[in-house]
């Protein structure tokens, strides 16, 4: 079937659920909401309060509806995109997002920078702060981002680390809200697979939104203990289990790769440990009738999931990928929207 035969692009879920997100007129420079995170770092979802998260997600929904087409609030501003790890979605969406908001992005690979090898991380931070207005880092270690933030006077954004993936979770929860509305208290979000950076960030979003988060992992692959303590300190219960029956009745079923970049040496061990944790159409039949399936991509088909699951009627995987653009544009606006070009 050709694109013409399919009738072009599908209407987004958001458009079909208008009562949850009422339409508004196009923004002008005078009607923009005030930036709520101005000048701050975004290394974790807990760098936002629940109210600030609500504002960012409302802005993301508004941007997706096209209400920001008439404004370029980041005109004259620049964002450095620093990559230790390869990327499709993170690179494209932050770059396009800056362009659509009137700014500019420059991509810097680790071959060019050599974070911590060719140059000290602190020196890289002190250089970049004199040229650009913010830094997004997709790196191996959370500590690299912490060090960049400590030494740069400009906002530093976590585009992915070994510990957390907070920008991804903004898009994920935008997608979840498109299905279930903005009040997610008690909604069952079940993450199945490796207790990695995605699982950790899901715990943080449970703290912020009141969703009921369950993490299903094999023994020995649980989420980070410090992240779990964040939930304990907030008085939020996170359900940890090795029982696959926990998937049943989920409003949201979420998975990620079993073997992340840098873990290739553990591949065979991990495949054996995660046997039975694969998301299949049969597993999707056990979640809530109106439940949805999410995966941050890329998918390792034949491991954590199969193509029939990402193409399943309950899948919102590609809506979720689209929302990386809208959610990150909202984040960029609320971090940088109050800045003036320095040149």
pLDDT < 50 runs, ≥5 residues = 1-19
Gyration radius, rounded: 20 Å
The separation of the N and C termini measures 51 Å
The overall pLDDT, averaged over residues, is: 92
CATH architecture of the largest domain: 3-Layer(aba) Sandwich
What's the domain count? Answer: 2
Which sequence of strands runs across the widest sheet? Answer: 7-6-5-8-9
Characterize the biggest β-sheet.
5 strands, parallel
CATH superfamily of the largest domain: Aspartate/ornithine carbamoyltransferase
Order of helices and strands: HHHEHEHHEHEHEHEHEEHHEHH
CATH top level label of the largest domain? Alpha Beta
CATH topology of the largest domain: Rossmann fold
Strand-pairing-aware structural class: alpha/beta
- Which range does the strand content fall in? 5-15%
- Extended strand count: 9
The helicity comes to 25-40%
**What is the 3D shape?**
globular
Task: Give me the number of helical elements.
Answer: 14
List the helices and strands and how they pair.
Layout: H1 3-6, H2 13-16, H3 50-64, E1 78-83, H4 89-100, E2 104-109, H5 110-113, H6 121-128, E3 134-138, H7 142-151, E4 156-160, H8 166-180, E5 188-192, H9 197-209, E6 212-216, H10 225-233, E7 239-241, E8 252-255, H11 267-273, H12 281-284, E9 292-295, H13 307-310, H14 317-336
Parallel strand pairs: 1-2, 1-3, 3-4, 5-6, 5-8, 6-7, 8-9
